[in-house]
């Protein structure tokens, strides 16, 4: 049933200066890359990636009014959850590379854990503004970890996409998985195309229904909530709107450049 | 024996009688193209307003039983100017595109109709029946015979395209409303909009689930109401009817056509059967016609009215 199920918050974990994980009294089955709609009654409902399944947890960075309200909530309080929705990441081959920009680490850390469980060899390229923005590195400790920061306060100074280019020159991978700002993901896709490597990208659009009928989150002719949010290279090659524009809550186009 | 699914609807030739209902998916030309490729005989845009509208806050679309949904989208759309760009070059579009328009009064409807002339819509649908958006439809008093006459006349003066009036199932004087529309120059009736409004309350928090609190009911539960409305409208007017409400299968479509519909709209049905619900419904219609010895849809339209 496509209606929120109200769950009690079990505990809240602070991940960094503006990111918290909310755990609930429930276990769920979900694939990395899938999302849930989180409902705060009389306020709004927004999509968040599933980050933990047992117990179920979501990780939220404080960005706007909704996440700010969410951050004020604590154990014992209740939130409505619908989902999980969408088409998540598909693990391919043996050796994979994940590349996160900023808060893209949220679904990718879950993917990395799943991949390691299934004996894939994982390289994680984690890009962040500064050292203080990093989190979930403990979830990546069994992978080969490459950190880049804009200011050089942790790892290499520079862009995660440059680190990816270097890595692809040295090593061969079966698939690259990315989540982060769309302009960065477009670049990751282009780099992968140049190297002839399959890529999976997790896209974000303004979502409303979550089950593929309202049309609000369309990118070209695909719904991000149902056909996505993860898209393959084959799909990305056909998308004319990828990395070009997003739509706001009215459906008006918001160009990335 | 070959079965012909082509229907003529107010001067439009549709390759089959299935039409994407307004408000579902139709945010862009590209996604409408996908719906056409998935088998629809015609497609309808999301409703266009003069200015951009963000619509209601989420949740806007929820399921209340296996067979019913409530929605209060609130006409989110990027507005007239964006629509002109989004839907330019519809010449090459594989099926007719119906432009759905909503406005607050007759004057604004006329303005909107005049301004969508540059878009190559093949028909115009005006929605006098939304149950959940202040300033529009039922909440603006548009679902009366008088308002229907005034708005339909105003729009009729501004377009030569086939003009469909979308009506509410909630009114007592549906016959008078559709007669008013017909007399004012409408070419067809789209029946019905969502029912209600209804409400769902989450009992854990004691709060209404839809952010707008109330929303229109759609899905299979709406079908018997829609069938009855189409049946009544068929008795009241001579212009064709697009039957909408709870259609998910070919048998539903057949029933709607027997009640008097020339074509059928599908919206929430996409949830149950995917975007290719249009092709599935057409295949099932064909199968039904074949197994029952009919050779065309004209043989079944309105047969429930024969003694």
| CATH fold-level name of chain B | TIM Barrel
Q: Please tell me how large the radius of gyration of chain B is.
A: 18 Å
* Global structural class of chain A: alpha/beta
Low-confidence stretches of chain B: none
* Anisotropy-based shape of chain A: globular
Shape of chain B: globular
CATH superfamily of the largest domain in chain A: Nucleotide-binding domain of ferredoxin-NADP reductase (FNR) module
Q: Helix proportion of residues of chain A, in percent? A: 10-25%
What is the CATH architecture term of the largest domain in chain A?
3-Layer(aba) Sandwich
Tell me the number of helical segments of chain B per DSSP (H or I, 4 or more residues long).
9
Structure description:
- The complex is a heterodimer of chains A (257) and B (307).
- With 257 residues, chain A is α/β, with parallel strands linked by helices.
- Chain A has two domains: 5-85, Beta Barrel (Elongation Factor Tu (Ef-tu), domain 3), CATH 2.40.30.10; 95-255, Rossmann fold (3-Layer(aba) Sandwich).
- Chain A has helices at residues 65-71, 105-117, 160-170, 182-195, 233-236; strands at 5-16, 19-24, 35-40, 44-53, 56-61, 78-85, 95-101, 121-128, 144-149, 156-157, 175-179, 198-202, 218-219, 222-223, 230-232, 245-247, 253-255.
- Chain A has a seven-stranded mixed sheet, sandwiched between helices. In chain A, strands 1-2-5-4-3-6 form a six-stranded antiparallel β-barrel.
- In chain A, helix 4 links the parallel strand 11 and strand 12 (198-202).
- The longest helix of chain A has 14 residues, at 182-195.
- Chain B has a single domain (7-54, 77-195, 220-301), classed as Alpha-Beta Barrel (TIM Barrel).
- Helices cover 30% and strands 20% of the residues of chain B.
- Chains A and B meet through strand 4, strand 6 and strand 14 of A and helix 1 and strand 5 of B.
């Amino acid at each position: 049933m496509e209606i929120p199920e109200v769950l009690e918050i079990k505990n809240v974990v602070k991940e960094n200066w503006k990111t918290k994980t909310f755990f609930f009294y429930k276990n769920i089955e979900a694939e990395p890359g899938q999302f849930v709609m989180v409902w705060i009654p009389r306020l709004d409902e927004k999509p968040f990636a599933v980050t933990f399944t047992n117990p179920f947890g979501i990780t939220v960075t404080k960005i706007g009014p909704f996440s700010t309200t969410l951050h004020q909530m604590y154990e014992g309080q209740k939130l409505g959850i619908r989902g999980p929705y969408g088409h998540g990441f598909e693990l391919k081959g043996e050796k994979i590379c994940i590349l996160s920009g900023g808060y893209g680490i949220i679904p990718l850390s879950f993917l990395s854990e799943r991949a390691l469980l299934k004996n894939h060899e994982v390289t994680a390229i984690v890009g962040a503004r500064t050292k203080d923005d990093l989190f979930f590195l403990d979830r990546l400790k069994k992978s080969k970890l490459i950190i880049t920061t804009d200011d050089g306060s942790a790892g290499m100074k520079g862009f995660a996409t440059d680190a990816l280019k270097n890595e692809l020159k040295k090593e061969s991978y079966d698939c690259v998985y990315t989540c982060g700002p769309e302009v960065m993901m477009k670049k990751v896709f282009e780099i992968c195309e140049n190297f002839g490597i399959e890529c999976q990208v997790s896209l974000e659009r303004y979502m409303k229904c979550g089950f593929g009928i309202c049309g609000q989150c369309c990118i070209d002719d695909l719904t991000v909530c149902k056909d996505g949010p993860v898209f393959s290279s084959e799909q990305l090659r056909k998308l004319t709107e990828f990395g070009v524009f997003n739509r706001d809550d009215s459906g008006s186009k918001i160009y990335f450049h | 024996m070959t079965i012909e699914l082509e229907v003529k609807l107010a001067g439009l030739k549709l390759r089959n009688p299935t039409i994407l209902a307004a408000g579902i998916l139709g945010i862009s030309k590209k996604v409408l193209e996908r719906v056409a490729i998935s088998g629809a005989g015609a497609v309808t845009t999301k409703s266009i307003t003069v200015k951009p509208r963000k619509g209601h806050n989420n949740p806007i679309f929820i399921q209340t039983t296996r067979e019913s949904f409530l929605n209060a989208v609130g006409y989110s759309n990027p507005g007239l100017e964006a629509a002109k760009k989004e839907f330019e070059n519809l010449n090459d579009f594989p099926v007719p595109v119906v432009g759905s328009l909503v406005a607050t009064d007759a004057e604004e409807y006329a303005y909107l109709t005049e301004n969508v002339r540059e878009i190559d819509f093949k028909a115009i649908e005006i929605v006098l029946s939304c149950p959940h958006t202040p300033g529009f439809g039922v909440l603006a008093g548009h679902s009366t015979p008088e308002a229907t006459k005034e708005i339909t006349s105003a729009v009729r003066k501004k377009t030569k395209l086939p003009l469909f009036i979308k009506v509410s199932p909630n009114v007592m004087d549906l016959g008078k409303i559709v007669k008013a529309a017909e007399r004012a120059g409408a070419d067809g009736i789209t029946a019905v909009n969502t029912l209600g409004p209804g409400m769902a309350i989450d009992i854990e928090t004691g709060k209404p689930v839809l952010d707008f609190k109330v929303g229109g009911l759609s899905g299979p539960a709406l079908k018997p109401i829609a069938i009855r409305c189409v049946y009544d409208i068929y008795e009241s007017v001579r212009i064709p009817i697009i039957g909408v409400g709870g259609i998910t299968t070919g048998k539903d479509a057949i029933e709607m056509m027997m009640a008097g519909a020339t074509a059928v709209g599908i919206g929430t049905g996409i949830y149950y059967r995917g975007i290719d619900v249009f092709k599935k419904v057409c295949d099932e219609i064909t199968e039904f016609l074949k197994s029952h010895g009919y050779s065309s849809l004209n043989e079944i339209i309105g047969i429930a009215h024969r003694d």
